[in-house]
Amino acid sequence: MKYIFLVIFFCATVLEAQIIKKPQLQNKNAERDTLVIDKGGKDSVKIFKPTINDYLIQTQFSEKKIFDTVFTVDKSYQFSQFNNRDNFGKIQFANIGSGFQDLVFSVNKEQNLSLLPTNKSHFILGIDDVKYYDVKTPTTSFVYHNAMKQGAALNSTYTQNIGKNFNFAVEYMGLRSQGIYRRSLAASNNFVFSSHFNSKNGRYQFFTHYIHQNVNNEENGGLEDVSLFLGDDSRFNNRQNLSVNLTASDSRFSLRRYYFSQEFQFVNSEKYPFKLRHTLYHQANKYRFIESSTESYYTSSYVDDFDTYAYKFSKNLSNTVSLVFDKKTFKLDAGFRHQLINLGTDRELPTAVGVTIPTDNKENRLGAVGNLEIRLWDKVDLKSFLEYSNGKSFGNYIRSENLLKLEPIKGYILNAHVNFQSAIPSFNYLINPSFYQDFNYNFSNAQNQSITEIGGKINLKWFDSSVFANYFRIDNLAYFDTDFLPKQSAETMNISQIGGEATVKYRKFNLNTKLLFQSALSQKELFPMPSFVGRVNIFYQTKAFKNAAEIQSGIKVYYFSKFNSRDYFPVLNEFVLSNSGTSIGGQPIADAYFNMKVKRMMFFVEAQHFNTTFMKNKSFTAPNYPIYDFRLNLGIVWYIFH
């Protein structure tokens, strides 16, 4: 609650606009910023009226962009979701804030050298996700979503400049949703403070932020009897009447990060464009699984004299110094990094368990990092990133990202990438202290999991379309077996993906489609996935009320083919291989919606999964975990430029 009051306090402190120069990044066709509406004819004071071009947003050391308030089809996918992201390739659990199952294989770099359970990772903000601002006047934004049954999700941001060169922002997200099934309460929150400073002569700047994130959930273990859900007994149309497997279990994850990065240019000269960059941050991740009373669902026995809660953590203190050569067409950043990493728990397991887990596993890691960017003729953009580090406990870590953007013909853009990563599996695979006898492990002989990713995307002018393809080669794939224990594949896994997206327009009618086909060429039983994921959106968009508003109205259908899914295991918040061979998918999820924009406010109203009003809900996120029935979903986005 203290964060809510802090945000309200800042929002109430509205200061006068700062007069700053026109940003260099705007194109010639953009509307001018800081319009002069009175040149001071009556007195010596000029009166200015800011425009949208005065409100800019960026991530660290990136180009600034104008606040995106355009009412595009992308917004109907983004702001109709409680996490404000397009969740294509995922399937949501039956309550907002309860996570997703990934239907499409991808690499999440936030899990590298850290403790981050998969089902908690969908809400986490990484270093490159934190936003920094540059605004002419104090600015506030609100993003609201209604919850399942009781509660709401609200993301509020307040930012302002103090002088021309210093900005701060405060963001708070609070989510609480009861859910329509028993024991499915989600209660999460994020607090972010970010700031950016750039000196008058442009030779020094810093980015800093503090973030505290919590992702807390009741865990119900799925339905006790799925046949009651699929049956015709009207008593169970009230989902609270369906019994669940767990009645006293909770999972809690928290992340806290202090971050500071500064950059200093030695001499203000085009002839010697060298800068010194220093980055320091500390991040702590914590995961708990708690039972308020003993459960009878799992067959494993309890550990004697060990309270019914499990706790583990990871900490990372990182210090990087690098030298930057910065020209308009060529930028090189190379330096050294030291990390102090710690993985552990709060207490030792009893000897009778037979598994030894150290309360602290600290190591010092030394490594190097490098970034390269080349821009030629506004047609070629090459970006490369390389990081290497080494330590005794967690071995070698290598990550390389290489992105190439080409625009040989105006309107035809090729984005290609070749990425490689070799790292020990996510720390959630390495240790687990548990009050369940069989769920304790110390995966001390884990090998580096190596992932090679090759792919590309081509954007075409025709129908605003694009086609993409990806290929993954995974060696030593880490997974959880049917006994809920970590294992690694002895054979290579190969995955291919191909798809595309297009929008067809006829007057004010639009058809947007996105399709993805994928296949595991080997070891497919270790990462079950649907062979097809698709989305179709038919909508009508037009100005209304004498051009004072804009509306979108249509129907979206989301579909993925049937496949033998993994089980969800609440104790670890991970997906594990299943013995049951239960299939999910093969059922459409249809939403009807009416969206409207009035000035800087957007409304998103959706009848989600409305096809369950006339057909039986047979859609599942994972075995024993149905997705939600028909619900009326409301989203509101409001930008206030004071």
Q: Can you describe this structure in just a few lines?
A:
By secondary structure, this protein is mainly beta. The chain has 3 helices and 39 strands.
Structural features, described:
- The protein is mainly beta.
- The chain has three helices and 39 strands.
- It has a 22-stranded antiparallel β-barrel. Strands 4-3-7 form a three-stranded antiparallel sheet, with no helix packed on it. Strands 1-2 form a two-stranded antiparallel ribbon.
- Strand 18 and strand 19 form a beta hairpin.
- The longest helix has 11 residues, at 2-12.
- It is globular.
- Residues 1-31 have low confidence and may be disordered.
Helical content (DSSP H or I, runs of 4+): under 10%
Enumerate the spans where pLDDT stays under 50 for 5 or more consecutive residues: 1-31
Mean pLDDT: 90
Distance between the termini: 25 Å
Describe how the helices and strands are arranged.
Layout (H helix, E strand, L loop, with lengths): L1 H11 L22 E4 L8 E3 L5 E4 L6 E2 L6 H6 L11 E3 L7 E3 L29 E4 L3 E8 L4 E12 L3 E12 L8 E13 L5 E16 L6 H5 L18 E17 L8 E18 L17 E18 L3 E16 L14 E17 L3 E12 L3 E15 L2 E12 L7 E2 L8 E2 L6 E12 L4 E11 L2 E3 L5 E3 L4 E14 L2 E12 L11 E13 L4 E12 L2 E2 L2 E3 L4 E3 L6 E2 L4 E10 L2 E8 L11 E3 L2 E2 L4 E11 L1
Antiparallel strand pairs: 1-2, 3-4, 3-7, 5-6, 8-9, 8-39, 9-10, 10-11, 11-12, 12-13, 13-14, 14-15, 15-16, 16-17, 17-18, 18-19, 19-20, 20-23, 21-22, 23-24, 24-27, 25-26, 27-28, 28-29, 29-30, 30-35, 31-34, 32-33, 35-36, 36-39, 37-38
